[in-house]
Design goal:
Layout: H1 2-17, H2 21-24, E1 28-30, E2 36-38, H3 40-48, H4 52-66, E3 72-78, E4 81-86, H5 88-101, E5 115-118, H6 130-148, E6 153-159, H7 164-175, H8 184-201, H9 203-218, H10 222-244, E7 251-254, H11 255-271, E8 277-278, E9 288-291, H12 294-300, E10 307-311, H13 319-330, E11 340-346, E12 349-354, E13 371-377, H14 381-393, H15 397-401, E14 403-408, E15 411-412, H16 430-444, H17 451-471, E16 479-480, H18 483-486, H19 494-509, H20 524-534, H21 536-546, H22 550-569, H23 578-601
Parallel strand pairs: 5-6, 5-13, 6-7, 7-12, 13-14, 15-16
Antiparallel strand pairs: 1-2, 2-4, 3-4, 8-9, 9-10, 11-12
Helix pairs in contact: 1-4, 3-4, 5-20, 5-23, 7-8, 7-9, 8-9, 8-10, 9-10, 11-13, 13-14, 16-17, 19-22, 19-23, 20-22, 20-23, 21-22, 22-23
Length: 610
């Protein structure tokens, strides 16, 4: 309905200014004075070389003289702005629209072009700590928002089952006498801390681990098979944590399969690209290199050597070369494809994995994306920018433009940083956090419910507190983790927004009367709340465009505050006038619908009671 009102304003202004509606539409926004405001006079003033305030006054006058739109009570100019004030008819129409669309209210039109979002890509040798959790929660919320805005979305997790950390964990698993106890990723992570120390102190252990690294990369051997099983077992344990936090994936891509499946074609592709050349002399002799542009130098400063090595002289790919090959596959530029097989069920949805044995797997439509988003920490800014630049140099301008690094700052402790090798994550795992949250919620519960319902409520509220605390800051802001802040159950928090939803249910549950919308004389508290509810699609569009779910956290708090003001100023059930009472019930129901839609995009459940 808000879109329709904006389109009507665009038509009115275009007719009065002899302009095109599509030129006027971008100039319409939520107003500080009016309900919606149009600043097209600014644009027109540049063309006509006239005062924008004068033009705005002329346009408003023409609109008021030509017709009286039913959806606007008043249209007036204020400086260079034209302010539009909704009529009671418009407020009633917005309410009816929310009640009609329900769970789809605020959603965008269906769009073409798959968006592939990769997250959280945690090494498969430890549990998620609170730093990993920020990545996972951010990625899931962005995926949900893009889906709701109409994009087809594919959630991908890249599993690095090669390299030092996995080799160290595999050595510990094969050579220590301790057997797995408890949650496997926790046990494996604790063992990894011990093995990492031995690796530094004992040359024999270091040499054995290096042999394992070579065996893992070579593949098709006993150690490689053991390493793959270890990684998969760890990821299954990690994913039990993911499910607790409402995080799921469509496909897991294992690095060992990338090496085995894509690298033949990928290396040939790189060598056959015109801008990639074989160096025949100098210290880079025998290497395949690409020269980065001057524009890239301007972005990151003067480079000592603009040549970027993609393939070493011994024929192996450097990190950038490997990542380039993987991104070429993501964008559907390689003919080779993986085989896939089911990995595990996640709330009724099957997560697939790349298959290490092509005979077991089947071909599926993963990858081949129009847009790629990598949720990776801020320290990867330069390597991610290099991939964009290399794609550009290779002639993939569209792909370079559609590759996004969703950079986020890390979560730290007041006294130290998280380190997998040093074990500073011990006691700060995502599982620890949820357990502590549930205990704190349980201590505050006063309602008398069954043990099973109490468990459901404590988990829903605990997860809400955690997710909201992690998502309310923009991704580029560092979070210093403190228990008392993360688990705040009062004030500006996830539980506060949940409670506003519960209050709407409570009011509706006290009567058998059905909400019904009438064109009443809406008061200020009703108008403010309805206007706020109407903004959901705009907020979602902004979050989708900016990949920034923190706008949703503020929006949910604004709804909760406006609903509280409405409830105080406009009694619902005590109201004697039937039309007003039923319309206020409709306002209450609409508030619950919009709050639920908003919180769902944050991955926050709305309990019936709390």
């Amino acid at each position: 309905m808000l879109s329709e009102l904006k389109e009507e304003i665009a038509r009115l202004v275009a007719d009065a200014a002899d302009a095109k509606e599509h030129d006027v539409l971008p100039a319409i926004e939520s107003g500080k004075v009016g309900d919606l405001s149009c600043k097209y006079a600014f644009i027109l003033s540049k063309e006509k070389k006239e005062n924008p305030a004068k033009l705005a006054a002329e346009i408003a006058k023409k609109i008021n003289e030509s017709e009286k739109p039913e959806n606007f009570e008043k249209i007036e100019a204020a400086g260079p702005y034209i302010n539009f004030f909704f009529s009671d008819r418009a407020y009633a129409a917005i309410l009816s629209d929310i009640l009609k669309k329900k769970g789809r209210f605020g959603s965008g039109k269906k769009k073409k072009g798959k968006v592939l979002i990769e997250f959280p890509s945690v090494n498969p040798n430890k549990p998620w700590h609170v730093g990993h959790l920020r990545n996972a929660i951010l990625g899931e919320s962005v995926a949900r928002t893009l889906e709701f805005d109409g994009y087809p979305v594919e959630r991908m997790d890249y599993i690095n089952d090669l390299g030092l950390q996995v080799a160290q964990s595999l050595w510990g698993f094969l050579h220590t006498k301790s057997k797995p106890e408890g949650k496997f990723d926790q046990w494996l992570g604790e063992q990894y801390v011990d093995v990492a120390k031995k690796f530094e102190d004992d040359p024999k252990v270091a040499e054995a681990v290096r042999r394992l690294i070579a065996a893992l990369e070579e593949g098709n051997n006993k150690d490689a098979d053991a390493g793959r099983k270890l990684a998969e077992d760890c990821v299954r344990a990690q994913y039990s944590t993911a499910l607790d936090f409402g995080v799921s994936h469509d496909v897991l891509v294992f690095e060992s399969d990338v090496m085995a499946t894509l690298f033949g074609e990928g290396m040939a592709f790189i060598k056959g690209s015109g801008p990639v050349v074989l160096q025949k002399e100098g210290k880079e002799e025998g290497c395949w290199i690409v020269t980065l542009s001057e524009d890239f130098e301007k972005q990151f400063g003067k480079m000592e050597n603009p040549n970027k090595v993609l393939i070493r002289s011994d024929g192996t790919a450097v990190y950038t070369g490997k990542d380039l090959i993987f991104h070429l596959w993501k964008f559907g530029k390689l003919k080779t494809s993986f085989s896939y097989e089911p990995f595990m069920e996640q709330d009724g949805k099957t997560a697939y994995k790349t298959s290490s044995t092509s005979s077991k797997g089947k071909k599926m439509g993963f990858g081949n994306a129009a847009r790629v988003i990598n949720v990776i920490g801020v320290e990867q800014k330069y390597p991610q920018a290099v991939i964009v630049e290399v794609l550009k140099v290779l002639g993939f301008a569209d792909e370079a433009r559609n590759l996004h690094h969703l950079s986020y700052e890390h979560v730290g402790l007041p006294e130290t940083k998280f380190s997998g090798r040093k074990g500073t994550w011990l006691g700060y795992t995502a599982d620890n956090l949820l357990e502590e949250a549930q205990e704190r919620v349980k201590g505050k519960m006063t309602i008398d419910v069954s043990d099973s319902e109490k468990k459901e409520i404590t988990k829903a509220v605990g997860v809400a507190a955690i997710k909201f605390a992690f998502l309310r800051s923009s991704a580029d802001k560092r979070i210093t983790f403190r228990w008392e802040e993360a688990l705040n159950l009062e004030g500006d928090s996830g539980p506060y927004a949940q409670y506003a939803y519960v209050r709407t249910n409570g009011i509706l549950g006290k009567t058998k009367e059905k909400p019904a919308v009438s064109e009443i004389a809406f008061n200020d508290s009703e108008k403010n709340l309805i206007k706020r509810l109407a903004q959901l699609s705009d907020v979602i569009s902004r979050c989708s465009k900016e990949l920034a779910p923190h706008h949703l956290t503020k929006y949910s708090l604004d709804i909760a505050a406006d609903f509280s003001s409405f409830y105080a100023a406009s009694p619902v059930l005590p109201e004697n006038d039937e039309k007003i009472r039923k319309t206020r019930l409709a306002v209450t129901l609409a508030t619950g619908i919009v709050l639920k839609n908003t919180l769902n995009l944050l991955g926050i459940e709305c309990p019936a009671r709390m």
